[in-house]
Amino acid sequence: MMKGLILLVWCVAASAAVGLPLHTDTRWIVDGAGERVKLRCVNWVSHLEAVVAEGLSKQPIEEISNRIQWLGFNCVRLTWPLFLATNESLNSLTVRQSFQRLGLAEAIAGIQANNPFIIDLPLLKAFEAVVGKLGEGKLMVILDNHISKPGWCCSNFDGNGFFGDQYFNPDLWIKGLTRIATMFNGVNHVVAMSLRNELRGPKQNVNDWYRYMQRGAEAVHSANPDILIILSGLSYDRDLSFLKNQPINLTFTSKTVYEVHWYAFSDGSSWESGNSNQVCGRTTNNLMKMSGFLLQQGFPLFISEFGIDQRGTNVNDNRYLSCFLAVAAELDLDWAVWTLVGSYYLREGVVGLNEFYGILDWNWCNLRNSTFLQRISALQSPFQGPGLAERREYNVIFHPLSGLCVVRKSLLDPLTLGPCVDTDAWYYTPQKFLTLKGTYFCIQADEIGKQAKLGIICTVNNAKWDMISDSKLHLSSKSSNGSLVCLDVDSSTNEIVTNSCKCLSRDSSCDPSSQWFKLVNSTRSLGRGRSMINMVGSSLPNVATKFVDL
Ligand SMILES: *[C@@H]1O[C@H](CO)[C@@H](O)[C@H](O)[C@H]1NC(C)=O
Ligand SMILES: *[C@@H]1O[C@H](CO)[C@@H](O)[C@H](O)[C@H]1NC(C)=O
Ligand SMILES: *[C@@H]1O[C@H](CO)[C@@H](O)[C@H](O)[C@H]1NC(C)=O
Ligand SMILES: *[C@@H]1O[C@H](CO)[C@@H](O)[C@H](O)[C@H]1NC(C)=O
Ligand SMILES: *[C@@H]1O[C@H](CO)[C@@H](O)[C@H](O)[C@H]1NC(C)=O
Q1: Residue 381 reports pLDDT greater than 50
Q2: Which of 6, 227, 279, 438 lies 20 to 30 Å from 352 when distance is taken between CA atoms?
Q3: Mutational test site, ligand 3, from 5, 308, 311, 402, max ligand atoms within 8 Å of CB
């Protein structure tokens, strides 16, 4: 792993104006000029009992949105409970009254200090004001109907799971969606609505899915024709497999996006109890079967929730993340990380609950873990899609464990890891050589434990790289004495070396992810010279913005 301060890419293009509204062009989300806009979002929770966007008692909303943007995200998936839109005695409560009824005096004082503008607004107006502030912060917003009855989501028996459940009346849902869609008609930066989070529970069935999702989508479209409509699947947003043979019928085109959730715990504790290569292979195949096929059908796929315990102590989460990052990079998916939230006013009865999956810490002040941000930063710029500059597709050699890519400073320097925006272009040839664009050089294995080299005489003995194991994430070749080796990273120097291949199968005690590399197809523009790298300490507000040349 990288030593010292982490390096975060200061994405110069991040704040570039995007021509809204968005629409879809095959599997890509594009702007008015037809150029790709990659959604790289944070989830911001606003659907719990208080029905106020979390964190407003900790920091001014302008500070929080600046940080979101500064960290390279361009959008917020803002959650809302249906009853905010349909229950007048709820949505007419002021923010102050809402906290008072829950006995949250400290939150009131915090909001009074940090965001006084919102304290006496009725809840629905407060929601509107939050959305407005995010727009001022140059962030796009996706409004996600997360649940009906305000509270933590989700379980099979919480009455919010599927059409017909105790709190999930389809007609009321249509009414609420229509109201919110209407309210934000003409608000440019509200770019999408996701109709319902994590359908689930004993009542779920495919027929009702088509019936109601179709109605919901048409209702939102009529109320607000400018926004993308995001549809989620069954079984907690895991299953869209039924669309393979029966597409949904909608009266509009170029606006439908599908969403999917993928966590480590989606597969129980498989990651911890199994072999990482095998679990990664299995869960990736499953993703393609359940939802990934939609890309080939010409729909964008939005991973609207993924995330890990950022303390780094959850083995299941840690092993999953490298696999997730490899897949998300390869497919160049749009995504939203769970979650921005550092702590909640009140969650599941606990006041001030600390969110270990949160990007921000308990105080919404510092980054909880900068390593995590470095790893996902590789996914922030698009690799492919309409508007990207390079005509000939090349490969990026992505290393998910670090979030970095294989680069070389000069032909004489060793291969090492560096920021993916500054990557070299590689071609994976039909002979399975990895050649450097514009040269005859290819990557060659030497001996176990030695640096991988760039050489000019490429032979199948030491320059043919196979993608092996169930995960296909090991790049293997032969060392100079003919034994099987895998590309790896020397953790003390970040140099690219070859080692014996680690736990290719069966072994569940070892973690192969230092040897995981993904060849990502890219047409991202090259040769714009050294990009500026922003050195980010973990204390955001005080950080000096310092540019270094890597
Ligand atoms: C509407 O909200 C109020 C205030 O939270 C609550 O007491 C009431 O039960 C809600 N009504 C419905 C139908 O959910
Ligand atoms: C969509 O329309 C086609 C043709 O009218 C029909 O065969 C199909 O069953 C419809 N699908 C749904 C999900 O309603
Ligand atoms: C951040 O995450 C890394 C990798 O999982 C872990 O090793 C480290 O201990 C974490 N740091 C903090 C402060 O939680
Ligand atoms: C190749 O060298 C490694 C040590 O560098 C050794 O472990 C391995 O057995 C050797 N293989 C052959 C085929 O000689
Ligand atoms: C990457 O490009 C190769 C060669 O054009 C192609 O076979 C492969 O399907 C592409 N992968 C993805 C994920 O698009």
Answers
A1: yes
A2: 6
A3: 311
The protein residue whose alpha carbon is closest to atom 13 in ligand 3 is 369
State which amino acid sits at residue 98.
S
Distance 247 CA to ligand 2 centre (A): 8
Nearest-10 crossing angle of helices 276-287, 315-330: 50
Model pLDDT for residues 130-150, shown as the tens digit of each residue: 999 999 999 999 999 999 999
Ligand 3 atom nearest to CA at 538: 13
DSSP string, 372-427: HHHHHHTTTS-SSSTT---SS-EEEEEETTTTEEEEESSTTSPEEEE-GGGPPPEE
Ligand 2 atom 14, closest CA: 249
Locate 332 and state its tokens.
């160049």
Ligand with smallest separation from the Cα of 168? 1
As annotated, the residues of the chain forming the CATH 2.80.10.50 domain(s) are: 394-543
- Among the four given CATH numbers 3.40.50.300, 3.30.450.30, 3.20.20.80, 3.40.50.2300, the one describing domain 33-377: 3.20.20.80
CA 249–ligand 2 middle distance (angstroms): 6
Task: Read off the pLDDT band of 461 (50, 70, 90).
Answer: confident
Instruction: Look at residue 15 in the predicted model and tell me its pLDDT.
Output: 43
Q: Shortest CA distance to 250 belongs to which of 280, 278, 288, 222?
A: 222
What are the angstrom distances between the C-alpha of 283 and each of 15, 134, 245, 513?
35, 35, 22, 16
The CA distances from residue 78 to 320, 371, 470, in Å, are 25, 25, 37
Query: Are 228 and 23 a contacting pair, CB within 8 Å?
Result: yes
CA distance 504 to 56: 47
Beta bridge partners of 488: 497
**Residue 254, pLDDT above cutoff 80:** yes
Mean pLDDT confidence for 23-34? 97
Return mean pLDDT, the chain.
92
Ligand 1 centroid, distance to 160 Cα (angstroms): 15
Ligand 1 atom index nearest CA of 87: 1
**CA–CA dist 239, 233 (Å, integer):** 5
CATH number of 394-543: 2.80.10.50
Kindly report the protein residue whose alpha carbon is nearest to atom 4 of ligand 5: 521
Starting from the CA of residue 249, give the closest ligand. 2
Which is it for the CA torsion 411, 416, 418, 420, positive or negative?
Answer: positive
Q: Which of 387-391, 407-411, 493-497 has the lowest mean pLDDT?
A: 407-411
**Mean pLDDT value across residues 314-321:** 98
Task: Inform me whether the pLDDT recorded for 546 exceeds 70.
Answer: no
Name which residue leads in pLDDT, 110 or 536. Answer: 110
Work out the average pLDDT over 465-482.
96
pLDDT computed for residue 527 by the predictor: 64
Regarding beta strands 434-436 and 190-194, do their DSSP bridges make them parallel or antiparallel, or are they unpaired?
unpaired
- Expressed in angstroms and rounded, the spacing between residue 481 Cα and the centre of ligand 4 is 6
Delimiting residues of CATH 3.20.20.80 domain(s) in the chain: 33-377
